[in-house]
Amino acid sequence: MIGDGLFLSGPVFTLLKSHSKYAIAVMKDKTRQIYEEVVALSNITEPAIYRQNKTCYRVWEHKISGLWDGYKGEVIAIKSEETTTIRRHSREAGSDLKWEHIKKKAEWMWVTNLPGTGDLKNTVRVCHCRWQIENQCFNETA
Q1: β-bridge partners, 106
Q2: Labelling 114: which of 18, 26, 27, 81 has CA 20 to 30 A away?
Q3: Distance (Å, whole) CA 13 – CA 141
């Protein structure tokens, strides 16, 4: 199950695990202890770095346990810093069709109880699929 930050709770992860299911939830709440742990661990470890199309990814993967009262299992926290280079026409007054390169930055964090992801690049892709699923559903019901 891939879900929003609302699904990032010990009881939800415990329920899914009891049915032999796994969860991936986006982490938005910066006040959570697990968020602080991921930031601290990322500051002392090297990320995996790769490019895909116009985006450069710096991704950290951390195994964490014991940070939720409602979930006793180990989770994997993933932090992704993504920089996408976009080329567009310059907005300078009087410029003749000059191109400028803009860098857009985004930071994502997810928590999952998937067993050993192995392929971090694929895991990040799956985590981002949540937006595609939600947008598809909303477009079909509108």
Answers
A1: 82
A2: 81
A3: 28
